Amino acid sequence: MIATSYFVGLLLDNTKFENLFLNLNKYININNIQDTVLLQNKSSLHITLYYFKEDLDENEKNNIKADIKNINENLSSIKICLINYFFIKNKKILCYLECSNKEKLKAINNYFSKKYMHSDVPENSYSFVPHVSLFKIKNNEIFEQHQQNIEQIITKELRLINNSRLFESINLFMVNSQTEPEIQIPI
User: Fold this and answer.
1) Which of 10, 16, 125, 187 has the fewest C-beta atoms lying within 10 Å of its C-beta?
2) Rounded Cα gap, residues 95 and 143, in angstroms
């Protein structure tokens, strides 16, 4: 796979999200809004902790993986809380799930930021918001017609998800963003 970027992320147990994605996909297909709502790749649900450049060499990858092993965090204290959106010019562009214990995740982000200083990567210039991406919104006007129903599906399914052992591990991911949805593989 050709890597367009790398990131350190907290991998979720995607089996806990199967019904959520099944029901969202069913709603999207029944209502023929596949061009409006683009679901995240369920197999790589994660919280991005820090972005790296696209041309990491093997030595850099090994250093990052060693740092990941040295991070001894209790991931069980992090829970999924609620639905939110990222906006550009007052238009929703991404639906995401917020999580609890943001300070723990911000501390991990700060660690990598101070050690690797990849401020030239555009994603690292934004304020760090720990989140799990659910879907991209391609057409805001059409999405708003379905927003309430979609949020009901998400809220119902989130109540059923067992938050214990929700997160599997912190990993280095390789990304190919030239596909839709993009491919994000833990390495």
Assistant:
1) 125
2) 11
pLDDT given at position 4: 87
Q: What is the pLDDT of residue 72?
A: 67
Q: Strands 167-176 and 37-39: what pairing?
A: unpaired
CATH of domain 5-186: 3.90.1140.10
Q: Alpha carbon 108 to chain centroid distance? A: 15
Give dist(CA 29, CA 133) in Å, integer.
20
Do the beta carbons of residue 177 and residue 4 sit within 8 Å? yes
From CA 111, how far away is CA 126, in angstroms rounded?
Answer: 16
**Helical segments of the chain, H only:** 18-30, 58-70, 102-116, 140-160
One-letter identity of residue 139? N
Domain residue ranges in the chain: 5-186
Q: Which residues of the chain are under the pLDDT cut of 50?
A: none
Measured between alpha carbons, how far is 2 from 63 in angstroms, rounded to an integer? Answer: 21
Burial tier of 119 (Cβ tally within 10 Å: 0-12, 13-18, 19+): exposed
What single-letter DSSP state applies at residue 36? T
